[in-house]
Amino acid sequence: MTIAYFDCFSGIAGDMILGALVDLGVDVKYLKNELKKLPLTGYDIEVKQVECNHIAATDVTVTVTKKQHQRSLSDIIDILRRSTLDSRVKTLSQNIFSNLGNAEAKIHHVDIEDVHFHEVGAVDSIVDIVGSVIGMTSLGIDKIYCSALPLGHGFISCDHGILPLPAPATVELLRGIPVYTVDRRQETVTPTGAAIIKTLANQFGEMPPMKIRKIGYGSGKIKSDYPNVLRVFLGELENLSRKKKTQKKKKQ
Length: 252
What we know:
The protein is α/β, with parallel strands linked by helices. It has one domain (2-251). It has helices at residues 14-23, 28-35, 73-82, 87-108, 123-138, 168-173, 191-200, 240-251; strands spanning 2-7, 43-52, 55-64, 143-146, 149-151, 154-158, 161-165, 179-181, 203-204, 210-219, 229-237. Strands 9-4-1-11-10 form a five-stranded mixed beta sheet. The longest helix has 22 residues, at 87-108. The protein starts with a strand and ends with a helix.
C-alpha cells in the first residue's frame, strides 16, 4: 500500500502541498494539462527550485493574470462539475470546498450558499486545491497520514478585516485534529491547507511504520530563520506485526 506522511513542522498551506507533491515527482506538464480541464482562465503557474535554510525545495506560485470575481460554493462546484477531470478528482475537490464552506458559514453565522470565498475562492486557491488532489492521485497514494499541526499567533489582514491567528475558519476546520502552539507571529496553517489535509488525511499523529521511497519538500512563501517547508514522505506501509510473526516462524 502506497502511503504519504505529511510532516508539518513548519505548518501547511495549499501551495506548500502542491510544491511537495511536485518535488515528489508529479510531472509539471501533466499537472498543468489536467488543470486546463477546468473551465477556468486568467492564471499562470510558475514552478522553481528554491533553497530554504539550506534545504532544497520546490516552490509553486500561481499568478492571477485577469481580474477574478468572488465565488460562492455553488459557483466552484459548478466549475468542477463542468470540467473534464477524473470523477475521483472532482469528488475529492468538492469535498474539500464543502468542508471549507461549512467552516466559513459557521464562523460568520450565514447559510453556506451565502458564503463568498474571497481569497479562498480566488483562482490561486482553486488551483492549489484541485492541483493537490490531481498530484496525490497521480502518485497513486492509497492512504495519507499527517503529523500534529503547529499553530502560530498574532493577527492577519484579509477581506473580512483584521482576524486573529489561527484564522477562525482554520480553527473550525481543525476540530478533532491534534495541534500545538509555536512562538511564531505568522499564519502557519492556512484555511486552504487545513481544508485539504482535514479532508484527505486518514489519520493524524506519529509517522506509521513505513519503507520510505521518496521525500518531497514544498516551500512556503514566508521567509524566516527556520526552514519554512512542508516535508512529505512517500513510501510503503510496513506491517511490523506480520514481519515479527514471519521472523519468529523462521527461527522456529
